[in-house]
Structure formats: structure tokens, C-alpha cells
């Protein structure tokens, strides 16, 4: 048992911290730290700066830009990025389809897609959820039917985050309707400019446009866009969702948000009840961060540690708790969400309520928190 | 950074677990043991001494083993797992720790050597009926010079294992202010202090101690203010109490999952009901978060930084308090009526957690202290 980082890991952390705080574009960091929305251009620029420095996809195989870091080093990289207000690389590219293609893709697919995916020259969207297939993903009904060399796709995906920016979409489609539902699913890569693909916005409770419906009507997809085995999509989905839980606890980001909130809180900090709420959240964040470190230290062979469900569950709860505290500290100013920048009310206060509402999503996505409880109960506790 | 035990630490854990499971693996034995005074097993105490467990925290030159906080934490966790009623936390960790930190070389060798050998049981008399709760001073007890020696006057209550103790470490206000540490001996006849022992609701033992010009020996140089030493030893003991509570909670969750998979109602085992399994999952979340904080605080002791320890002890105590109430209450609820009975361990475990929570400061107490310093930092850094 030892708390200190090794000299090597401490130097690594310092190297990350220095890069993120001195060499990364300040304007993008300010946008993140002030809780404002990033534009598509900013997200692309951010990832390209990271990719140029070898910091966009360090967890990929080294052949495709990976760095061969330890799990602890990956954790430190991830935390330092968030602490500095550097947007983490687009999850659909860096954490989802990239590792999937590196593991299951053909050589041709790897060469065609991986470099462009790392550099965000291609913006990927995720086409998994459907109106009747949420937590029960295997019930999905979008079909792909073989026609010559092509697949013809029909159906509807939903909750497609930032689909309005998407160039390509990786989808789970039903390729065999006559077997057990998990056994008839395949993964297809679909060019979103193909005829028959339509993206429709979904307006959310915060007034923003973040997610979409994606409709497929007789979309002809070339046969070589199948990933992995035919009807092997469920295995790939489990691999991808397993990866999704690693790093899903936004510890650094939530710590930063709480620190910013303290700095903005002014004389509300004189209220002992407010101070007590902050201490409770800070203490739970400490517990979460230490648990993330324990998980990192114990995970082996790339398999997610079962306790990573704890990180997702508690991490999103704390993210939500900080956003809730922000609305309470903002008070009546939180109502002025639609006021322009000439408003005398502080920007953070005006943005607090939409952010709070927006973050209700965190306990729903990435395997809802109830799914995480199910995993804990079954896998860890044997119930 | 490493959160795992090395080979020697694992061997220690297995040895202590083996001994304690043999003794208290059957909860009925614990129940019988606590039914009569002194409320713990003197033979087991002797075997713990033989194993070196009672001398773990003390320097080798004082007759101890010179082990670190991780090893002491291992022992506390194992004691917690079986609800062992032996006076380790207050008698060895805190009382021995105070003697170790404040005593002269002769006192250390004489007292700690006897403690490590299992020949002498210590207690700490600090809490006062009208005193400030969980403070480091002792305004209700005064120390007075009496010729070459000292006497103490005041009341202390509750004093854990105070009726059985051979010697009691007593905190008292010094003539010139500050708080001193004294040793009151009960091994010879003609006690001038009145001791009234009683059982506590978790099967433990405590006592009321009334000192009336009772002769006492100062630990270390006479008249020295020991406030800083008391504060640090209380912080260290808070972390060890959290280790003990962690062991209790681990056992409670294990008992709960075992019960859910075996108890049948409506013709099926209880784990069929998601309303129950989700609550067990939440207990696991609380337990794992607490485990991390307890490990962290235990490792912080080794840094030797008193300020860092004070902060870590408060954070650890806050987390442990919240978790022990959550897990202790849910363990009873998920079992149902059986956990309300004295013959089943789970309810007593919750009782024991409640004692541990109120020994050295509950969650709200530490929350208050931490709230005062909430603007002193930007973010909390787990790794420094």
C-alpha cells in the first residue's frame, strides 16, 4: 500500500498537465471552464490538436496511434484533460468505433477509417438505441436485408447525440429475424450522405438540440461495411459498451465544476447550510476519485473491473448534484436562461438551470443507473 | 500508488482472520462472551499477544513490533468482521498510542511491554459527562500538584473497558492551562477512584470513573500540554475505528446477500425481487466508496503530516459515518425480523457501528469542521 505516484508516473502527470495548460488553445479551454457550448469547429480543432500531440487515442493499439500506456497513465491523462478544461476526444470516435474497428475490422476498414477517426476528419455518430430498444438494446428492429453485394437498411434510430454533425454512423441492425434476438444482430457502418438517411432533431428540456432521430429508408449500404462477423454484432456491442464504462465517471470535470461554483458563489458561502452541501459533495467526489484509482490499479488485461459500475453510478449522481447546487446558488438568476449577454445577471447563473436539466441524461445514458445496479447485483453480489 | 497488501500484510490478515474466525465465527460464542464480565475473552487476548498483534503499533525498543498503520488497520478490519469485543481500538491503539507518544522511555518500556505481552489492559478516560463532545481538552477534570506527585479530580464517562482496565490514561486540565496526560493505576489495593462498570448496547463494556484527588503519574514531563498529541492520536484512532467499521460493513453485506439468496417467501428466494437486490447494490456502492477512503486515510497516517492526517481523519470519519448508517440500517431491513433478534449477528453489527460512529465524532461533527475550511482550497487532490 502506497499513496504516492511513482517518480515516472508523477513526471508523466506533470507532462500532461503542462501540455494541457500551456500548449492547448486557451479559447477552447475557457469555453469549457465557463460552461458554454462548444461549436463543431472547436470540437474538431480540439481533437486535431490532441491527435497531433499523440494525445487523442493513446488507448488504441500502438499500430494505430496508441501509446502503450498503463491503465494508471490513461487515467491520469483523462483526469488532467478534464481538470484543464480540455474537451475529451469525441467519445463516438475515440472510445467507441475506433477500438471496435481496431479489434474487429478488416485491414481495409482499419486503413480507411482509423487515421481519419483519430483525427476527427470523419465525425462518427452512434446508431444503437431505437424507440422500442433502450436499455433492452437487443430488441432493436432496424433491418438490413442482403440484396446482391449490398445491404438494404430500413428503420429508425434515436437519441443520436450530435447526429447533426455526423459524417458516418455505426449501427446495430437486425440481419436475422428468426433466431434469439441477440443472435441476429450485426454492425454496419453507414455513410450519412447516402440517399434515404434522414436526421431529424429532437428538442430537449434544456431548449437545446443535442440528440436526433435518424431514419433509414431503403438505404443501400455496400457489403464491405459490415464489421466483424455476420450476426456477430451483439459481441461487438458488449465490447463497445464495456469500453464506454471506463472513464465514464467524469471526476475531473465535476471537481472543476464544483471549484468554479465555489469561486462564483460569493456571499452565499457565508451560509453554513451551503458550506455543508459543498463538503458533502466534495467528500463523495474524493471517495469516487480514490475508487477510480483503485479500479485502475486492479484492472488487468483491458477487462473493465466490475466495480466500474460504481463509478458510472456515483459519478453521474455527483455530476448531477453539482449542477443542482449551481441552480440553488444562482437562485432567481437561474430563471433568466433566455436573457442575452447584456443581462446584468451572471452567465454561469443564467446557464445553470439548462445545464441542470441537461445533465438528467447522465444517469440514463451509458447503461442507465438502474442497469448498473443490475450489473452490481448480478455480477458482483451474485443476486 | 498501490492499493494492495504485500505478502507479509496478506499473511498477517490470514493469521488474524484464522484466529478470530475460530473464536467468533459462530456468533453464539460472541454472544456468550459478552454476556459476562469483562465482556471479552481473556484467553483470546493472550493468543493475540502471542501472535504479536497487541504490540503491533509500538516501537521494538518499547517491546512492540514497530508495524505501520496498514498493519494496524488490517487487525481492526478483522476484529470488525466478527464483532470481536476485545479492547483493541481503545486499549491498544489509542491508550497505547498516547503512552507511546507522550511517555518517558521507562514508561513506554514498562507499560507498552506489558500491553504487548497481554499482561495489562489499558483504557482511556477522556469523555466527560458535561464536557464538550469529541474535543481535545478536558475542562471537567483538573490536575493538581501534590508535593512530588499529582492528583486528579473530575468525572469521566463513558470510559470504554474502564472497569476492567489495569491502568487508565486520563486527560486533565493543567494548573497553567493546556491538557495533560496522566496514568492512573488500578493494579494495587486502595483505589481512590470510583469505577462503575456497565454494558453498552453492542455488548461492549464501559464505565463511569469518578476521580477525587486520585494520585496519578504524568506521562512524560510533568505539566506539559499534550493537546497536539491528543489531537493526533484521536485522528489516528478515528481512522482505525473506520477500518473496524469497514470490516463490520463487509460482513453485513455478505450476510445480507447470503440471506437474499437463501430465504424463501412466496415460493421463491428473495433475490427474485428487484426492489431488494437494487438496495443491496446501493449498499455495495457505499461500501466500495468507503473502502477507498479508509485505505487512503490509513496510508495518509504513514506520511507523518499532522495537518494532512487531521483532514484525512475527518473526511474518512464523515464517509464512514454516512455509509455505516446506510449499510447498517439496510442490512436489518433486507433481512427483516430475524435481524431484530439478539441471537443473530446483523442487528448487533448495526449496534456496534452506531457505537463506533459516536466514539470519536459522528458525520455531522466532522462535516462541521470541514465546512469551516471549505474555501481554503480550490479542489481536493486525492494524490496530493
Q: Between the first and last Cα atoms of chain A, what is the distance in angstroms?
A: 31 Å
- Quantity of strands of chain A, as a count: 8
CATH topology of the largest domain in chain A: Butyryl-CoA Dehydrogenase, subunit A, domain 3
Number of domains of chain B: 3
The main β sheet of chain A shows up as: 4 strands, mixed
- Strand composition percent of chain B: 15-25%
Mean pLDDT of chain A: 94
CATH superfamily of the largest domain in chain B: Butyryl-CoA Dehydrogenase, subunit A, domain 3
Distance between the termini of chain B: 12 Å
Instruction: Kindly provide the radius of gyration of chain B, computed on alpha-carbon positions and rounded to a whole number of angstroms.
Output: 21 Å
Walkthrough of the structure:
The complex is a heterodimer of chains A (383) and B (384). Chain A has 383 residues and is α+β, with helices and mostly antiparallel strands. Chain A has three domains: 7-89, no CATH class; 124-232, Butyryl-CoA Dehydrogenase, subunit A, domain 2, CATH 2.40.110; 246-380, Butyryl-CoA Dehydrogenase, subunit A, domain 3 (Up-down Bundle). Chain A contains twelve helices and eight strands. Chain A has a four-stranded mixed sheet. In chain A, α5 (91-104) runs antiparallel to α6 and α9 runs antiparallel to α10. Chain A is globular. The two termini of chain A are 31 Å apart. Chain B is of the alpha+beta class and 384 residues long. Chain B folds into three domains: 7-120, Butyryl-Coa Dehydrogenase, subunit A, domain 1 (Orthogonal Bundle); 123-218, Butyryl-CoA Dehydrogenase, subunit A, domain 2; 227-372, Butyryl-CoA Dehydrogenase, subunit A, domain 3, CATH 1.20.140. Helix content of chain B is 51%, strand content 16%. Chain B contains eleven helices and nine strands. Chain B has helices at 7-24, 27-35, 42-50, 69-81, 88-102, 105-116, 227-262, 274-301, 306-335, 345-359, 363-372, and strands at residues 122-125, 141-146, 149-160, 167-173, 179-185, 193-199, 205-218, 264-265, 268-269. In chain B, strands 1, 2, 3, 4, 5, 6 and 7 form a seven-stranded mixed sheet that branches. Chain B has a two-stranded antiparallel ribbon with strand order 8-9. The radius of gyration of chain B is 21 Å and the shape is globular. The mean pLDDT of chain B is 96.
